[in-house]
Fold this sequence. Notes:
Largest interface: A-B, 53 and 58 residues
Distance between the termini of chain A: 42 Å
Helix content of chain B: over 70%
Helix content of chain A: over 70%
Oligomer: heterodimer
Order of helices and strands of chain B: HHHHHHHHHHHHHH
Amino acid sequence: MGKEKTETTQVSTRSRQQRWPMFWLVLKHPLAKAGAVVLILFAILAIFAPYIAPYDPEKILEDEAGTWLTYKTPGPRFWLGTTDMGRDILSQVIYGTRTAFMVGGLAAVMVVVIGTVIGLMAAYFGGWVDQVVMRLVDVVYGIPFLPFAMVLVTVLGGSQWNVIIAISVLLWRETCRVVRSQVLSLKERPFIEVARSSGAGHLRLIFVHLAPNVYPLSVLYGVFAVGWAIITEAGLSFLGFGDAKSMSWGKMLQEAYAAQALSQGAWWWIIPPGVAIVLMVMSTYFIAQGIEQVVNPKLRSR
Amino acid sequence: METLKFFGRRLVHSIFVFLAIVSILFFVFRLMPGDPTMLFISPEMSVDAIERIRHSFGLDKPLYVQYFKYIANIFLGNFGISYYFMEPAAPMVFEALKNTLILTIPAMCLSYLFGVVGGTLLAWWRGKKRELWGMAFALILRSAPAFWIGLIFLYVFAFHFEWFPGGSITDTGVAYEGFWEMVLSWDFAHHLILPVLSMTCYLTGLPLLLTRTSVLEVIKEDYVEMARAKGIGPRRVMFRHVTRTAILPVVTAFATAIAYAFGGSVLIEVVYTWPGIGRLMVDSMLGSDYPVAQFAFMIMACMMIVMNLLADFVYAYLDPRVAVK
């Protein structure tokens, strides 16, 4: 009886680890652990923003006499102070988390999907397909990233979606290149030969046999893309090419810069959005460190 | 022979890439919101006058004619007239490019110096507590947006301590005879320090992490073991034997670094009101001066294509196996 019980627990833990093998390996890395904690905290902020934020981020706050509460230094009432228009900075930072998650998450998904599919196709079919894809990748590598994103957002219009599209249109190049070279060596391996001789078609070979072997790599580049996308969105917003309607950390910095917060000495307006960007991007890079150890065993400590 | 063929092939590819990017630019800029002529056409103007202006810019012709004319003009060295200043775009852009290069080149050199040394140290500290903190620091540095670092430096050193000027390339009202006289002046150096430092912070992450990864791979090679066995001190082994080999992929990533630098320089230039190519492009985009924006973009793309090509050549030279494949 007792023996059976230990057996079942063993089986259940093993199956859990088998279902998410990468997940558990990644979290063994101390930096990845720290990154995951920070990211979860941000996720809580983003989901419950309306309940956590003390004020409406767009609302101009007034005192009893009706004067605007502009440039209030951080204190018990406004933890991070207020802007030149009397808006609460803490609330703005909390709502900005939502934009960061949306831009980072969606851009990463698009980068992973586009890069992986194109890379798989190029390497699997080879020949002229590969030639065309590689020339396309060459072209995309020749385009300056941020300036092109600026141009695209101007053409498409400054909405959140267009910012995400502008970022993804260029960022897939790296994923594609890495996935392609991985598949090139994978497709020479015996298991592909076996699958082919037992009658697997192109689509089955690509998506059932090859794709699962490159997905850790795609995930790694997807995680990098999250950081890149958040930084790029912030840059675009700072330059005035972002979505004017939604609250983002880049837009906060742009407003602060335009309002000359620097010469006003309003350090509390400049520091929080930047720290938020750094923390969030950092947490993704930390997680990427853990993934890199799984993907590239050469890096594991001796 | 194989190497020559490889170089030839890469050169042809680069020309193709250039043409493709130039074509993409042409069509994307045609899709820009608003008619490019509306900048200086006032409502009182007669239909005739508007037509004349459209004609002078060649905007009344069909799109494909405009396209071929545009491509031909690139090879003839005509890069369009600024809608705003009514002068050729090229001299403005080249003037700005000079200012950008003088900002990016020192920053690139510094970041590579810090990156290679720091990356080697991080690899050396493998498995120690120090490595973890070092890695965390490097990743935090890489996570910080360039313009935010710029803003912080500007606040601390220019506005709080007032050690440095708050932007621009020289003091206002000071005139210089030529470019070099300006560059060699104390006034200019004073304006240069903060932007270069901000940019260095932003650029250091890439060579640092690359060097670390590369060193970690090289360190396991037999010849390193051999050097150690010969009794060579650990510091000498690290910097003379390991880094020398490990630096290869880092050097060839220089092209990527340039691409990276242009993204960052746009933002740094805007923060420090530095009259470089990135800021020129942002201003002309926001002001609908599309010929200038388009040419500035083309020059940035050119730089990247040339750097990519150079990286291929360097790599093929250092590792001849690449060319044969």
